[in-house]
Amino acid sequence: MSTVKNPLAKIQNNVVFDDIISSLNLNYKSILMNSLLIITTVTSCLRLSSFSAATTVPMALRSVDFEVFGRVQGVFFRKYTKDQAEKLALKGWCRNTSKGTVEGQMQGPSDKVETMMNWLKTTGSPSSQIDKANFKNDKEISEYTFSNFDIRRDN
């Protein structure tokens, strides 16, 4: 059994030991608090970035001119075209031409414009007979230039 020759040394050693433990406890608490702060900050940044990405990504809009050939006048083609465009939330116009065709312009999200292009090539009004549909001036736009889809007076 060992005996301490100097009782004061034991007390001093305990005080030093207690100081070390206190310092470690403070460092441990500090590390935990900093870790929590970092986790909270990273989580907030991720939420903000996903929120801002969802709200700032502009929707790609597309504008396309069209002309449809065949039996497309006197068969309610323009009315059905307007109805279909409104179902797809497209904006623009259509009208009869002196050549016996129907021409127009449509604007909207690219996938909806693509759907309408297919409809103009293949479907039309029930009594129509589509020979072909031509599309030109296909371009991306930053904003609409029309507020709705209209039927215009004949050209």
UniProtKB/TrEMBL annotation:
Superkingdom, natural source: Eukaryota
Catalytic activity, as annotated: an acyl phosphate + H2O = a carboxylate + phosphate + H(+)
Pfam families assigned to the protein according to its UniProt record, in alphabetical order: Acylphosphatase (PF00708)
PROSITE patterns referenced in this protein's UniProt entry, alphabetically: ACYLPHOSPHATASE_1, ACYLPHOSPHATASE_2, ACYLPHOSPHATASE_3
Positions of the catalytic residues: 78, 96
Keyword line: Hydrolase
GO molecular function, one term: acylphosphatase activity
EC number: 3.6.1.7
Domain Acylphosphatase-like intervals: 63-153
UniProt cross-references to InterPro entries, sorted A to Z: Acylphosphatase (IPR020456), Acylphosphatase-like_dom (IPR001792), Acylphosphatase-like_dom_sf (IPR036046), Acylphosphatase_CS (IPR017968)
Similarity annotation: Belongs to the acylphosphatase family.
Name the record gives this protein: Acylphosphatase
Protein source organism: Bicyclus anynana
